[in-house]
From TrEMBL:
GO terms for cellular component: plasma membrane; side of membrane. It is an enzyme of class 3 (hydrolase). GO terms for biological process: carbohydrate metabolic process; defense response. GO terms for molecular function: glucan endo-1,3-beta-D-glucosidase activity. It holds the Pfam family X8. Belongs to the glycosyl hydrolase 17 family. It catalyses: Hydrolysis of (1->3)-beta-D-glucosidic linkages in (1->3)-beta-D-glucans. It comes from the Eukaryota. InterPro entries: GH, Glyco_hydro_17, Glyco_hydro_17_plant, X8. It comes from Lupinus angustifolius. This is glucan endo-1,3-beta-D-glucosidase. Its EC number is 3.2.1.39. It is a lipid-anchor; GPI-anchor. It is found in: Cell membrane.
Length: 495
């Protein structure tokens, strides 16, 4: 009886202490992309995440600056491995061991980065890749898992692979008819079985925006959580939005293959604000507020009442990201490239979204088309081509925020984006005598079209987070001492 009483009390003590060790309260999760010509300092981005209650972040690569800034931040990290590394990691376990040592073990042990997942590849089974990465993905997952175990991190860090929703389908058009694509069925089952046995999650990216943007007949209201579209009825279940229907199509696919309890993460979901007609401030605010509301309420889907972790895509705009899928790719951020707010959001309890602090900019000057220049000048086309080859002109795309400008307005926007991207160099505003530098903001009044000024990469404070990190370590040590004291007292009462 004495041992049984001690054992019960010991377990109770551990439970109480484990609750005390939970890092903070409920928070949000986001994707942090780094394809930017003028990125904010990583410590500014991490502070922006913390100020807005983000407790989890997914990186698409093991970026040293981002990972260092996340050290001792209290933010849990999913670190990604790009697709172009899959082949080498799949064919050589030593390459996987080296990658884990450099990009996981190193940051956990030396810099206090709370890495929880390694995302092997990114949408590697996407149809548009034509099977390029299909055979390498699973062996790469296996080798990274083996490397994590070898490093003593097999329980702390879980492997996963973010997949696009196009890996599953429904012949009936209803969620209950979900199953995996026949061409990748075997690979999917192998990956799912391996992850399930490793107590690791599946990660899927779901994009209602893409469903709407790709199909002119798609019912727009079905893309939003508060839409007025007629529900899709599947047996006894009614679906009022595409996210629920899409997610439950995946769950049906898992159930059909014997993995109905497989843990799932939504790795990317969001709405862009520019680049095409459906990508605008109004739609993005409506969608993301609805998404935030669901996350706050811990709302699941008809097939899974327990909600998955949801990583909002994305946190901040990326002006150097590939636009192969569409011009909107550079505008997914909840925040602009400089951490300024695009639109207000209620983060729960009346807490508003807040902008980045301490951002430094280049001087308030713009490069525009000269008033004396002729819009019919034969050199204008070449000048526009040069500007938009090296700078982001996606806001000029049809249906975008600056698509209503006239010829001179288009030229001015393109010239300015090039000028800003080139750090306002004097020779960057020389377009065959067509351009001039001005200190008057050329942004059209009462418009969502903005002529940007870039972040000044040269004058940002370079204050390291060493002192902040030291303070956090001291606080952590104090907490551990208190918890150890409580642990000792409770154990003495148990004996």
């Amino acid at each position: 009886m004495g041992f049984q009483r001690f054992n019960t009390c010991f377990l109770l003590t551990l439970c109480i202490l484990s609750q005390g060790l939970v890092k903070g309260a409920f928070g949000f999760a986001c994707n942090w992309g780094l394809r930017s010509t003028h990125p904010l300092p990583p410590q500014v981005v991490v502070k922006l995440m913390k100020d807005n209650g983000f407790k989890q972040v997914k990186l698409f690569e093991a970026d040293p600056g981002a990972l260092k800034a996340l050290g001792n931040s209290g933010i849990q990290v999913m670190v990604g491995i790009p697709n172009d590394m899959l082949e080498s990691l799949a064919s050589n376990v030593n390459a996987a061991i080296a990658w884990v040592n450099q990009n996981v073990s190193n940051y956990i042990s030396k810099m206090g980065v709370d890495i929880r997942h390694v995302a092997v590849g990114n949408e590697a089974f996407l149809k548009t890749y034509n099977g390029r990465f299909v055979n390498a993905t699973f062996p790469a997952i296996q080798n990274i898992q083996a490397a994590l175990i070898k490093a003593g991190l097999g329980r702390q860090v879980k492997v996963t692979t973010p997949l696009n929703a196009d890996v599953y389908q429904s012949d009936s058009g209803l969620p209950s008819g979900g199953n995996f694509r026949p061409d990748i069925q075997d690979q999917m089952i192998s990956i799912i079985k391996f992850l399930y046995q490793s107590a690791a999650p599946l990660t899927f990216n779901i994009y209602p925006f893409l469903s709407l943007d790709a199909d002119p007949n798609f019912p727009k209201e079905f893309a939003f959580f508060d839409g007025s579209n007629a529900p899709v009825v599947d047996g006894s279940v009614s679906y009022t939005n595409v996210l629920d229907a899409n997610f439950d199509t995946l769950i049906s696919a898992l159930e059909k293959n014997g993995f109905g309890s497989m843990p799932v993460i939504i790795g990317e979901v969001g709405w862009p604000t520019d680049g095409t007609a459906n990508a605008n401030i109004k739609n993005a605010q409506r969608f993301n507020q609805g998404l935030i509301n669901r996350i706050i309420k811990r709302q699941g889907t008809p097939k899974r009442s327990t909600p998955p972790d949801i990583y909002v895509f994305g946190f901040i705009d990326e002006d150097a990201k590939s636009i192969e899928p569409g011009p909107f790719e550079r505008h997914w951020g909840m925040f602009n490239f400089d951490g300024s707010m695009k639109y207000p959001l209620n983060l729960g309890g009346g807490k508003p979204l807040v902008a980045a602090k301490g951002v430094k900019y280049l001087p308030k000057q713009w490069c525009v088309m000269s008033a004396q220049a002729n819009a019919m000048d034969p050199g204008l086309a070449d000048s526009l081509s040069k500007a938009c080859t090296y700078a982001d002109c996606t806001s000029l795309s049809p249906g975008s925020s600056c698509s209503g400008l006239d010829t001179k307005g288009n030229a001015s926007y393109a010239f300015n984006m090039y000028y800003q991207t080139m750090d306002q160099r004097k020779d960057a505003c020389q377009f065959n005598g067509l351009s001039v530098i001005t200190s008057i903001n050329p942004s059209p009044p009462q418009s969502t079209c903005h002529f940007e000024i870039m972040v000044d990469l040269g004058v940002h404070e370079t204050r390291t987070t060493t002192s902040m990190g030291a303070q956090k370590m001291e606080i952590h040590s104090m907490i551990m001492l208190v918890l150890s004291f409580i642990f000792t007292i409770m154990l003495s009462l148990c004996i």
